Amino acid sequence: MTFTAMFSAALPIGIGATMVMDLWGLLLRRMGVATLNFAMVGRWAGHLLHGRVRHQAIAKAEPVRHELALGWGIHYAIGVLFAMLLVVIAGEGWLLAPTLLPAVAVGVGTVLAPLCFMQPAMGAGFFASRTPTPARNCLKSLATHFVFGVGMFLSAGLLASAQSAC
Q: What are the DSSP E strand ranges found in 15-111?
């Protein structure tokens, strides 16, 4: 399978899965559960462009221009990259007949990125250790990435259905 073919599949799968994850986040916020502010992701990325990788507390760092838009763009780009990982691991056969387990396994595995990289870089520590409720925050991240995995499965199923109809 060529890179172009893999990316052509990963793009709608990643966007669709990220949208599912965003709907999950919206539901959580409506239930009063705090979720990630993507402006902080954009702020971190803006500072990264100037060579600063780690912060004590990203919320206290100097705001950067267009940080919210930048954060949302990065959020969706990462969703596509994670979908690309799934496509590479699961292969072309999976794209033709998606199954839940590979998508959820990759989705759950991707939780290591925020727990071991983004949270420490933003000042929350490894596995949210510098937050008031590390275990709760880790479980919330795990649930969100599980939902992302389900979203990859659903998006791949829609893509396979659309392609078989053509």
A: none
CA distances (Å), origin 35, targets 104, 137, 139, 164: 21, 10, 12, 37
Name the residue among 28, 145, 128 with its Cα closest to residue 79. 145
Residue 55 has pLDDT above 90, yes or no: no
| pLDDT at residue 79 in the model | 98
Residue 165 has pLDDT above 90, yes or no: no
- Dist CA 69 CA 77 (whole Å): 12
Where exactly are the structural domains of the chain?
Answer: 3-31+73-161
Rounded to whole angstroms, the Cα distance separating 99 from 161 reads 13
- Rounded CA-CA distance 150/146 in Å is 6
Q: What is this structure's pTM?
A: 0.94
CB-CB contact of 98 with 156 (8 Å):
yes
Distance CA 127, CA 2 (A): 36
pLDDT digit string (tens) for 72-129?
999 999 999 999 999 999 999 999 999 999 999 999 999 999 999 999 999 999 999 9
Whether 153 contacts 100, CB under 8 Å: yes
